[in-house]
Amino acid sequence: MTAATAPAPAAETPDGGAVIDVRGLRMRYGTMDVITGVNFSVHRGEVIALLGPNGAGKTTTIEILEGFRIRSAGDVRVLGTEPATGDERWRARLGIVLQSWRDHARWRVRDLLDHLGRYYAPFATPGRPRPIETDKLIAMVGLTEHANRRISTLSGGQRRRLDVAIGIVGRPDVLFLDEPTAGLDPHARHDFHDLLHRLSDFDDTTILFTTHDLNEAEKMADRILILADGRIVADGSAEQLARRVSGQAEVRWSQDGEFLVHSTDDATAFVRELFAEHGDEIGDLEVRRTSLEDTYMALVHRLETGQSGGDVVPFKRTA
Ligand SMILES: Nc1ncnc2c1ncn2[C@@H]1O[C@H](COP(=O)(O)OP(=O)(O)OP(=O)(O)O)[C@@H](O)[C@H]1O
């Protein structure tokens, strides 16, 4: 990945590289087991989408990583620190965008960001200037023309942009976002995706976000984690998950004025044979792999109908 600023100091990662490391995480609310054994790790600069049905425990997992919620069991490290005991210096390296954040109503946008930014200044390092300069930050989230407005007068989508600005003002090493694009219009969503790419590419920020938008997960994430049934049932890129769950690709082509379609688990071999046999007669060739939506629905369906067949083996990191 390229770096626009000087490289940040290495994160404390005593386990040999993971910025987030979760082993055997369990969470029980009263008598209800919500998380029954979650394991995953995230490397520096990775963008991870955490997916799962309503109530699967995504927010709970993120809150545990942020140090806002105490787990029932398991070992968790974020930047080498156990979140429940993280000090101010550790906290200053995190950025957090909660699902809904409705306070500071009387503040004006620029004043609030300026004020919050000062908290991070003592934690600046030569490689990681903190905070992001206020007007630059406001431009990054597309709020320049609203900089002097009171927060209570912002629309839902404008408020969401502000939430993101609050999350990144301290130029975090690790950014947690809980459904960051809920309520954003398509243009704002597109801008937000660009912003995440910039944070990951230029600042090497490690990003973990939840979403119910599978297109967004597919487009944005290096890796997708699916949380269901209290555990991680899939861990890999959208393409790896598609291969693992369905293994099928769809080949479409035209021949003698007819449009044809064929499902295969080896599209390359099929296309090679197709051309060997019919050569110039083939037109409009298209190979479509299973979408993340197809994969997700198939996985969740399998779980709901009790066909999961044990643990889903995580994929090796390829990058
Ligand atoms: N403070 C709490 N006390 C008791 N139960 C809770 C508490 N917080 C969450 N739960 C329960 O834990 C389960 C997981 O909730 P969580 O909010 O983590 O799910 P989620 O995957 O983020 O869901 P959604 O997609 O709907 O946001 C749900 O059944 C929820 O009702």
TrEMBL record:
Entry GO CC? plasma membrane
Q: Where in the cell is it found?
A: Cell membrane
Q: Cell membrane as a keyword?
A: no
CDD domains membership: ABC_DR_subfamily_A (cd03230)
Membrane topology summary: Peripheral membrane protein
List the keywords (alphabetical): Antibiotic resistance, ATP-binding, Nucleotide-binding, Transport
GO BP terms: response to antibiotic
| MF GO annotations | ATP binding; ATP hydrolysis activity
Enumerate the Pfam families for this protein: ABC_tran
ABC transporter domain location is 20-254
**Record protein name field:** ABC transporter ATP-binding protein
